[in-house]
């Protein structure tokens, strides 16, 4: 995915996070279930945001990622 698309997706996710944060602030105290649902959705979006940010930073050379190598014999064991 090109950097521009990643940036656009990150901005979209940030917009969704802001909408959820605003909605969360308006929920009455007696609606704990709704608060938990929004908090969970926000948390998932936050994880997605940081993951995409890291991918973008990797593509731009700001960070490096150490990906462990797995022996092919271990891969066959994982499939079982």
Structure, described:
76% of the residues lie in helices and 0% in strands. It is mainly alpha-helical and 80 residues long. It is flat. It starts with a helix and ends with a helix.
Features:
80 residues; flat; 76% helix; 3 helices; mainly alpha
Q: How is the topology of this model organized?
A:
Blueprint: H1 3-26, H2 32-60, H3 72-79
Helix pairs in contact: 1-2
Low-confidence stretches: none
The number of E-state strands comes to: 0
Span between termini: 32 Å
Q: Provide the helix percentage.
A: over 70%
Content of β-strand: under 5%
Name the helix and strand elements from N-terminus to C-terminus, one letter apiece. HHH
Whole-angstrom Rg: 18 Å
- Structural class, from helix and strand content? mainly alpha
Helical segment tally? 3
C-alpha geometry = flat
Write down the overall mean pLDDT: 89
Main beta sheet: strand number and arrangement?
Answer: none
Q: Could you give a short description of this structure?
A:
With 80 residues, the protein is mainly α.
């Amino acid at each position: 995915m090109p950097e521009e698309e990643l940036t656009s997706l990150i901005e979209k996710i940030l917009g969704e996070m802001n909408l959820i944060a605003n909605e969360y602030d308006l929920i009455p105290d007696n609606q704990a279930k709704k608060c938990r649902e929004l908090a969970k959705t926000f948390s998932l979006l936050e994880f997605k945001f940081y993951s995409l940010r890291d991918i973008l930073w990797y593509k731009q050379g700001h960070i490096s990622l150490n990906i462990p190598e797995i022996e092919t014999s271990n891969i066959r064991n994982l499939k079982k």
